[in-house]
Amino acid sequence: MLIPAIIATAALTAPADTPALQRQVSSLWQSLSNAPQSKPDIAMLNQIFADDAIVAGIRQKEGQPDLKVQPASDFIASQDRIKPYGFYECEIAREMRVTEGFATVLSLVESRRDPTQKDADFTGINSMQWGNTGNGWQLVSLYYYLPAAGHNNMLLSGTPGQCIN
């Protein structure tokens, strides 16, 4: 009984096409970033997300956690505008579980308005589910969590300001 369980566990963590998935995860954070007076890379976001993908997240609103769930197409449309300020995503830690055409990725990301500023404006943990049906990895769901100020227990740890994407 123990041997099949070990084999099943190994299969869930086997690196199936991991380099391509690593590139896709990095592309997500790069495509969400933008310099002042510009917008994110909408074409790349449309390629990364699966057609029926969802984006869900909890952020703090008036001191209380607020959950929002929306189709990825709505999320992408909300990003499709020129922003007067910069927005830079800096992924500082990543954990992946990959098997065949399924992957779960945890990602710790700092966000800044200026890429040279020392402290992040906020840091969030992201849980992503990816699928690969033979045409490359696509993001099926993105769930982000932005904790209340001062709460930094994020499941992953990384070096602030040391981007891996």
Short description:
The chain is an alpha+beta fold and 165 residues long. It contains four helices and six strands. A hairpin with a 2-residue loop joins strand 1 and strand 2.
Question: Please, could you describe this protein's structure?
Answer:
With 165 residues, this protein is of the alpha+beta class. The protein has a single domain (20-145), classed as Nuclear Transport Factor 2, Chain: A. It is built from 4 helices and 6 strands. It has helices spanning 2-12, 18-32, 42-48, 72-79, and strands at 49-61, 64-71, 88-99, 102-112, 122-132, 137-145. It has a 6-stranded mixed beta sheet with strand order 2-1-6-5-4-3. Helix 2 (18-32) runs antiparallel to helix 3 (42-48). The termini are far apart. Mean pLDDT is 88; it is low at 1-14.
Number of domains: 1
Instruction: Give the helix proportion (percent range).
Output: 10-25%
Strand fraction: 35-45%
> From the 3D coordinates, which CATH architecture would you assign?
Roll
Residue ranges: pLDDT <50 for 5 or more in a row? 1-14
Largest sheet: 6 strands, mixed
From the spread of the alpha carbons, the general shape counts as globular
The strand count comes to 6
Describe the strand arrangement of the main beta sheet, using strand numbers: 2-1-6-5-4-3
Average residue pLDDT:
88
Measured between the Cα atoms of the first and last residue, the distance is: 40 Å
What is the CA-atom radius of gyration, in angstroms? 17 Å
CATH first level: Alpha Beta
